[in-house]
Amino acid sequence: MYRSPFKHLFVRTTAVALTFAALIGSARADEPSVTAVLSSSEASVGEAVQLQIQVKGDRNAGAPSEILVDGLEIRSTGQMQSFEMRNFNVTSSITFTYSVVPLRAGRFTIPPQALRAGNNSLRTPELTLNVTDSPNPTSRSNRAPPTATDPRKNTFAELIVPKTTAYVGEMIPIVVRVGFEIQTRVRNIAPELDLPGQGFTKQKMRAAEGRQTIGGKTYTIVTYKTAIAAARTGPIEIGPVEIPAVVLVPQTQRNRPFPQNPLGMNDPALEDFFNDPWLGGSVPREIKLTTERVTIDVKPLPPKAPATFAGAVGNFTMTVDANPKSVQVNDPITVTAKISGRGNFDRVTAPVAADDHGWHKYPPSATFKQDDDVGISGTKTFETAVSPNERKDKIPVQVFSFFDPAKEQYETLRSDAIPIRVEGGAAPAAPAPTAAVTAAGAAPAASAPAIPKQQDILHQLGENSGAPQSFAPLFARRSFWLVQLIPLLLVVGYIALKVRQTRLNDREARRRETLQVEAAELQRSLRRDDTPSHDYFSRASRAVQLKTALARNIDPNTVDADLAASVFQTDEATRLRLRHLFEKSDEVRYSGSGQNGDGVVLAETRKEVLGLIESLRV
Amino acid sequence: MKHATHSWWTGIAALALVCAAVSFARADQDSPFARANQEYSEGHFQEAIKSYESLVASGQWSANLFYDLGNAWFRVGDFGQAILNYERALALEPHHPEATANLALVRDEARALELKRTPLERYVEAGTSSQYSIAASIAFWSLLLLVARLFFARRRSAALVSLTIFSTIIFAAAVFAIYSLETGSRGETLAIVTRKEIVARLATADSAGAVLALPPGSEIKVLSQRGDWVYAALPNDLRGWIPASGAQRVRL
Question: Which of B75, B110, B145 is the C-terminal boundary of a domain?
Answer without folding.
Answer: B110
